[in-house]
Amino acid sequence: MKRQTLTMITVLGVLLALLAPVGPVEAAPPEAPDLIVGGFPFGEPAYDSGWRDISQGEDLTLTHNLGGDTDSYVVDLQGTNASVTAGHSGFGLDTRDSSNTWGIYWSKLTTSDIVVSRASADPINQQVRVRIWVAPTADYDSNWFGMGQDPALLNHGLGGDSDEYLVYLEFQDTSPGGYGVNQMYYGRDRYRDGGDVLRYKGAYWYNLTDQSVQVYRGADTTNAAVLRLRIWRVRAPDYDSGWQAATQGVADTLDHNLGGPWSDFFVDLQFKDTDGSNGVNQRSYGRDGYWTSGGGSLNEYGAYWRSLTGSQITVYRASEDNDADQVRVRIWASRQPKYNSGWRSLDQGFSEKETLIHNLGGDPDTYVVDLQFKDTGTYGINQCNYGLENVYSLAYSEMRGYGAAWLDLTDSQIEIYRAPNDTLADQGRVRIWIAPPADYDSGWRSIGQGASLPLSHSAGTGIVYLEFRDDSITGGVNQMYYGVDRRHDAGSDYEIGAYWRSLDSSSITVYRGADDDWADEVRVRIWYTPDPDYESTLTTITAGATETFTHTLGRSPDNMVVDLRPVWATGPLHKSYGSDSYYDGPTRYDEGAYWREFTSSSIQVVRENDDIYAPNVLVRIWIVEPAHIYLPLILRNYP
Q1: In this model, does residue 414 exceed pLDDT 90?
Q2: CB neighbours of 284 closer than 8 A, spacing ≥ 6?
C-alpha cells in the first residue's frame, strides 16, 4: 500500500471547507479528532518495551512513565519463542486444571508501570513485548461499568460498517492490592477445580453489529469488578485477510507480504460464529482448554494468532471450538525507526568513537541497524567504504584507513567508528528498527577464519541482513569490515571481516576473512521483499563507471532506506561492499561497488576500476517517514 505524504495542513483546511455544509448551520460541527500520524491505528506507540526475557511463573514489572490518564492508554502484549515467533498463544491465561496454567497477561497498569505475568506451566512465551499507545478519543466509550452474571448489552449506535471497527475491552480489579487495570483471563477461561467443579473466569465481547455489542463476564471472575469497552473506526489496514473459513484443529498460514525489516506490525484478530448466536466475537481468544468431568479428556476452544514474520501469519482454531467458524486478521504496518540519532559529526580515529545512547531495551537480536554517512562536500549521503577500508599508501608509506562502521550494539547503546584518514563520512546517522521476525533466521553461528558457511533457507531472495559478533570484549555485535577488507602490509596479505554471497531462493553462503577478529560468529536474517517505493531494473555497469538512477520519490533522503544489490555470475552478493582497495605486489586494485549522492530524486552507484563482482546492480528504496494522514479519521464527524 503506497503511503500518503504528510502535506501542508492548509490542504486539509481546503478539504474541510469543501466538505462543510452549504447554507445556514444550526450547530457547529463537532471538533475534529486528533491527526493520526503513522502506520498504526493510533500512530506510533508512546512506549515500547522491546522483546524482554520472562521466566515461567515470573511477574515482570516494566516502567513506562507515560503519566497522564491510564484511561487513554491502549496496551498490546505479545509473546514469542524461537519456534513460533510472535503471537497470542495463551493470551490472558489458559488454565487446563487447578495446577496447570499456560499463557501470559498484563495487569496493574498505572501511569508509570505495567506488570506482565507468565504462567508457571507456560511452554511458549519465553519473551514478551509491551507497547502502549496514548489513543485518541474513541468513537464509542462505555466508560467503566459493573455487571452481574447476565451479559451486558452496549448500544454504541455507531452505524456504518462494523468491519471497520477496532474493539478494545479491558478490566479493572478495584480491590486493594488487586490486579488494577488488566486483561487477565481475556476471552474467558474455563477449568475444573480440585472438586471437579467447572469454573468460569474472565470476560469477552461478542455479537458485534453496527449498533451494539455484548459483553460476557465469568461467574467466578475476581479480576474484573468493572469493565470498559471502546470502539474506534480505523483506517483501512495494510493487510486484511477478509473473513476466512477456519477448520477445527487446523493452523492456517496467511500471506500478508508486508515485508521487513523496516516494518513493525499491529495485529487484530476477530472470530465469527456463523451457525450460533455469538456473531463477531473474541470468545476464548488465545485458546481455552479444560478437562471434561473426571479428567476424561482435554477440550480446547477458541483461536489465536502466532508465527508472525515479515511475510506470513498463522491462525490456529482449537479442535472443539464452536465460535470461530470464520476468522479475520488485520495488520497495520509502520516503517518508522524506533531510534534515529540524526546526523552527528564524526571525529577520526578509534579513540574518538561516537557512542550513541538509544535506550531501546529489550533484545538487541531483534534490532536492525542502518548506518549512512554524509560528505559535507561533493558526494553527499553515501556508503563509500562502508564497514571500513584499509590500504597501504605508497605516497605516505603507511597504512591508511577510510570509511566508517558500527560496533558494540547493546540494548542501550551503539558505537560508530570513523577511520583516521576518511574524507567522506564527515557525519554519520544511525537508525534502529525493532524488526518483525525474519522469514529466515540462522541464529548466531560460529565460523572459522577463512571458512565458508553455507546456509539453507526458504525465504526467497528477499532483504538480507548480515551481522557479526566478536567473542572478545572489543566489538560485540558489529558490522566492522563488512564485505571483507583485503590488505597487503609488510609483504603479507590479510583478509578481515565477512560477507554474504551466492544468494538464491533456498541457500546463501557467508565467508569470513582468513585473518578476521571481528566475526567469530555471524547471523543472517532474510525477510520477504515488500514492494519497494522505487526499484531499478537490473543494470549493467562498466568497471570504473558511475551510474545515476532517477527515482523521483520526492522525499528527503533522511526518510528513506537504500538496498544496493550487486549481482555476479553466482547470484547476488555483498563481497567488497562499499569498495575494497588493496595491493598485489606493486599493483593496486580497486574492487566493489557503493552508492553516493543520494537525494530526493536520484542516487549514484559507483563500480570500482578493477571490480569483477558487481557487473550488474539493483537499487531498491523504501520510504520510512511518518507520512500518513488518514482523511477518513480526520473528516468522519463532518457532513
Answers
A1: yes
A2: 187, 188, 204, 301, 302, 303, 318, 321, 323, 324
Residue 115 in contact with residue 107, Cβ under 8 Å? yes
CA-based nearest residue to 621, from 552, 572, 575: 552
Check if the beta carbon of residue 527 is closer than 8 Å to that of residue 463.
yes
The runs of H, that is alpha helices, within 3-142 are 9-19
Quote the pLDDT of residue 259: 85
Over residues 619-634, the mean pLDDT reads 63
Total-model pTM: 0.89
Sequence-distant (≥ 6) Cβ neighbours of residue 289 within 8 angstroms? 94, 96, 102, 298, 299, 300, 301, 318
**Range in 50-54, 149-153, 377-381 with the lowest mean pLDDT:** 149-153
Q: Nearest to residue 147, comparing CAs of 208, 92, 229?
A: 229
Contact predicate 234/168, CB 8 Å: no
Residue 180 has pLDDT above 80, yes or no: yes
Residue 84 clears pLDDT 70, i.e. is over it: no
Pairing state between β 59-63 and 113-118? antiparallel
Angstrom distance (rounded) from CA 521 to CA 453: 11
Instruction: List, as own/partner pairs, every contact residues 7-16 make where C-beta atoms lie below 8 angstroms and the sequence separation is at least 24, other chains included.
Output: 7/629, 12/629, 12/634, 15/631, 15/635, 16/635, 16/638
Cα separation, 115 vs 110, in Å, equals 9
The residue-averaged pLDDT of 145-167 equals: 94
